[in-house]
Amino acid sequence: MGLSLALNTARSSLQASSTQMSVISRNNAGATDATYSRKIASLVTADGGVRISVRRSSDTALFFKMLSTTSNAAAQQAVLEGYDKLKNTVGDTSLNQSAAAKIGALNSALAQYANKPDDANLGRAVVDRAGELATMLNEATKTVQSARKEADTKIAESVGRVNDLLGQFETANKAVIQGSAAGIDISDALDARDKILAQLSEEMGITVSTRENNDMAIYTDSGVTLFEKTPRSVTFNPTSAFAPGTVGSAVYVDGVQITGQGPMPIHAGRLVGLVAVRDDITVTYQGQLDAIAATLIDAFGEADPSATPPVGPKVAGLLTYSGSGAPAMPSGAGLVGLAGRITTNPGIDPSKGGAVEALRDGLTYTYNPGGIGGNAAFAERLNAIATGMNADRTFDPALGHGAPASLQAFSTFSAAWLESGRKTASAEVDYRVTLLGHASEALSNATGVNMDDETALMLQVEKSYSASAKLLSVIDEMLRTLLNAVN
């Protein structure tokens, strides 16, 4: 081998070893970054020497499994957070804060008053329990609508993140395409692009397609294009305030609705969970609260007692509601949000200037033959109310309880429905998070950095570097000797 060829070989070997050490150092620096993939420096023989080709460790199947698992976990987490907020309407069961507990207290007070109708204090106790129940339903409605508003705000934030990530992806994708066309190291650019995909998958389910020069297109899991050469516009109009019956806006991608009843709804991601909270879970629960309020108003309602049994349109008794329609029984659109408007009747509630005896004797219609304040032993009206409170009624099957049930049973079902949904969501979150952990660990094992392996490789490269350096030193000495001999 000539000295010039030996010199070129030693020099290229030295450069290759230096590049390998640089790659190993990059791996060590990225070892703690969950989004970093191990870089591999491959030796390629060329022109009597060697050069380094850098590629990254990857596992496409595991990576996309992690993306789908991330989307599913994010959706369930959003649902669980919604249930947790609604759970505040029930509170600690030992504190008797639920509608079922307060209805039980009202029934007990009503029974005591019916047994001793001449005791005004017992009558006031009934009014107080009814007032507490009405207040609880009012506050529960506020909590439900607050949960809807919070979900709507988070939807807007999620859409903002999606648009921001798509903008970042455009920059990263261009770097990958340009690097691929130029034949330079694009491993870090690919890592940056994958990191953006992982963040995007938290907001919505996605799929991708890779084309020439590693160009990538992104689609929702329902097939709507999110990115192809350029990012698509994701739009959403947040609602400023929520009341029962308010319908929130949908999310669109280039004019295509991807949430709710749209033609191509997404199936996973935080957006799916948030929309479920805003449009389904809270709406159903509000409907249950409204049904409880309507049944209470009906149970205490008054009808013309001159017929046997009392017939004709009812009007509100002890419990009525604010807004148009009162004192007639609420119906149709008037039932929406009724739990937020139920209140005690000023004509009966002593704290509002009413006469508590009107509960026993009648307010709009006179039930007591002795008139209001007359026959103090009259209990027929109170017993009729108690019967109405405990009678089986038919509730809207859309509220989750199709079979006839008493008010107490339905309110108990409502609390159980809420807790069952929360427990199911919690278990689903635990399951999805565990799956995500396994998927992330498998991906890390396949593509991540093992410090022990990198240390061992560094020792090998250092030996190669030392050998190349020693060879250069020998060649240098030989060249010096040759030049001295010539001179």
TrEMBL record:
Residue ranges of domain Flagellar hook-associated protein FlgK helical in the record: 97-302
Compartments, record wording: Bacterial flagellum; Secreted
Domain Flagellar basal-body/hook protein C-terminal residues, every copy: 446-484
Pfam families the record matches: Flg_bbr_C (PF06429), FlgK_D1 (PF22638)
Secreted among keywords: yes
Superkingdom: Bacteria
Family recorded in the similarity comment: Belongs to the flagella basal body rod proteins family.
PANTHER family named in the record: FLAGELLAR HOOK-ASSOCIATED PROTEIN 1
Descriptive protein name: Flagellar hook-associated protein 1
Origin organism lineage: Bacteria, Pseudomonadati, Pseudomonadota, Alphaproteobacteria, Hyphomicrobiales
